[in-house]
Sequence to fold (322 residues):
Amino acid sequence: MRKTIVEMLKNAGENFISGESIAGDLGISRTAVWKHIQKLRENGYEIISSERRGYKLKDAPDLLLPSEIQIGLKTKIVGVDMHYHPSVDSTNRVAKALAYHGAMDGTIVVAEEQTFGKGRLERKFYSPRGKGIWFSVILRPNFLPKDAPKCTLMAAVAVAEAMDRFNLKPEIKWPNDILFDGRKIVGILTEITGELGKITYLVIGVGINVNISREEFPEDLRDIAASLSEIKGENISRVKFFRAVLEEFDKLYLQVSENGFDDVLNRWKKYNVTLGKNIRVISAGDGENFTGKAVDLNEDGALVVDTVDGLRTVYAGDVSIR
Ligand code: BT5
Fold:
């Protein structure tokens, strides 16, 4: 309902729109309209009201509200259903609960802040209020569990394509960190629920540092993290960037569902900064630590490393570029 009111105000542009016509179109009372307007104001919308002329939208907040993100969003699956939280422990946790209860393919959970943002291997992910885009996508793909890791690469490519649209040069480090100047801007955590041979659902959590200055990062992250605003030299609209990410995500998801992952893997290669470099690998499984040269990304999305003991294929782990 509130989303429709925002849409009507936006369509009216510089003009006022009367409470009566909003009420008429929505089939509610004028008092109900007024209550919705009050609620929108509490959410940061600047709405001018005049007794004779009605309401006019002066400014919309840079909040990741469905009323901001979904109006005019050109996606078929991703973000059609969207759950917004001012604050939450972890959007992945919420998304998994929703998926368990049947949430549809492409459902999004987004938060202004996470109090317990998760990285891989139970690490923490710093997610301060209003400064980034912390969200999770629920996917119910028709492909096999062995393809799940490639969905993580797909998410990284989606963010990279969105960065490209904003002229922010993306650098992907295997498997899915996006870096600037060697420091991390985006982290991705994919969690899979399924049975043998079948994915029931995937939850892909993406954390994007948008408007965080270097001094604002906690000390332990200052030398390893960066944000989009640092590349751009000015703050970026989170609303616009998030819409771009969702549109790219949707495009890629439709494409891989129909034609497989070849194109995603090629685009990943285009943005990657790992191949051709000397790297150190810490394998996820046994924690084994070795060095070598990253020579290829294979068709499973795994990294092929040329080591003193010959070629090794890494399916999961941490990589640092030497
Ligand atoms: C990741 O783990 O990078 C996956 C992060 C996924 C976060 C999203 S946010 C929405 C969704 N909901 C969640 O709860 N999680 C997902 P990993 O590769 O393990 O990296 C974690 C490490 O990155 C930490 O140990 C820190 O060193 C560093 N780090 C933490 N917060 C960071 C930040 N905001 N920016 C850059 N680096 C960060």
Observations:
- The mean pLDDT is 94.
- The CA atoms of residues 174 and 304 lie 11 Å apart.
- The first strand starts at residue 46 and ends at 50.
- The first helix runs from residue 2 to 12.
